[in-house]
Amino acid sequence: MQAFFILLGALIVLVLGLFIFSLFLPPVVKVERSLMIPAPAAKIFPLINVVRNWELWSPWKDLDPDIAITYGEKDSGAGAGYSWKSHNRNIGNGHMTITESRPEQYIATDTDFMRMGIAKGSFRLDPVSEGTLVSWSMTCNLGQHPLRKVMGLMMDKWVGRDFEKGLEGIKRLVVRN
C-alpha cells in the first residue's frame, strides 16, 4: 500500500510540475520555414494562390493518399478554400481559406483544425538575386490550456518538417516546368 501512495504522490507532483511549467510558456506559437527557389514569383504564386494546386505539393497528401478534399466555389485568391477529411489521426479534418492575396507577394490563410482551433498562416514571396525566397509560416494561439502549451514546444519540430517538405514540393514543380 505504501508503494501506491508513493506512486500517487509522484504523479501529483508531476502533474503539478507540468502545470507550473506551462504557466511560463507562451500561449502563441509560430512556425516558419523558408526556401530559395530559383524562379520568379510569377511562376511560384499560382501554385499557392490556386487552392486546387495544393494537392500537387502538399506534404499531407503523401501522409494520406486517400484524403477526401472538397473545394469551395472560388478557386483562387481571397475567399478560395477547401475542406479535408482524413482517417489519419495526424491529419484529421479541417478547412483552409485564403484570407488575403497580393499577387506575386503574399498570401494569408486561416486554417481551422476543428478541435485544435484556427491557425493563421502566410506565404511571403520575396525577390532575391537567385530567384524568390518563399517563406511559409503559421501562428497558433494555444490559449492557457497547460497540455496544449506544452505540446506547443513540439510544434516547430512537427509542423516545420511538413513545411520544409511542402516548400521542396513547390520547388520541384517550378524547377521541373
From TrEMBL:
Keywords: Membrane, Transmembrane, Transmembrane helix. InterPro entries: Polyketide_cyclase/dehydratase, START-like_dom_sf. The chain crosses the membrane at residues 6-26. It comes from the Bacteria. This is SRPBCC family protein. It comes from Chitinophaga qingshengii. The lineage of its organism: Bacteria, Pseudomonadati, Bacteroidota, Chitinophagia, Chitinophagales.
